[in-house]
Amino acid sequence: MQTQGVSDGALVDGVFRALADPTRRKVLEKLSGSPASVSELAVPFKMALPSFVEHLKVLEQSGLVRSDKTGRVRTYRLAPDQLKVAEDWLSRQRTMWEQRLDRLDAYLLELKEQKK
Fold first, then answer.
1. How far apart are CA 62 and CA 14, in angstroms?
2. Has residue 62 got a pLDDT over 70?
3. Residue 49 is inside which H or E element, if any?
4. Which end of the chain lies in a sparser environment, N or C, as judged by fewer CB atoms within 10 Å?
5. How many CB atoms lie within 10 A of CB 24?
6. Angle between the 49-62 and 8-19 helix axes, to the nearest 10 degrees?
7. Under DSSP, is residue 88 helix (H, G, I), strand (E, B) or coil?
């Protein structure tokens, strides 16, 4: 998945940067249930609202959430398709390591057969 003008590496970096923080992960968990306003999302966190809003900005820049404003209320909702960026990267890493381990296993079996 690629957003216009942003490389895959930058997308992956942005998603993992957003996911690296426990506050942002908790916001994503909350949003998985339903959209919520900034004030609703900020309730469980003991931090100043401007600091909390910075977390929301990071999430929005990564594409993991989207927001819209109605009157004075900004509502955030999860954008789950962007999680596929992280899932795809992890899947590629898993495949690479499984292939390496399979080659190591084959090599060790070959050595074992040669010793017989």
1. 5
2. yes
3. helix 49-62
4. C
5. 19
6. 150
7. helix
Write the pLDDT tens digit of every residue in 14-48. Answer: 999 999 999 999 999 999 999 999 999 999 999 99
H or E element in which residue 66 lies: strand 65-70
DSSP 64: S
Q: Is 70 helix (H, G, I), strand (E, B) or coil?
A: strand
* DSSP label of 15: H
Does residue 60 contact residue 15 with C-beta atoms inside 8 Å? no
- The token pair that represents 112 in the structure block: 């074992």
**Rounded CA separation 44/40 (Å):** 8
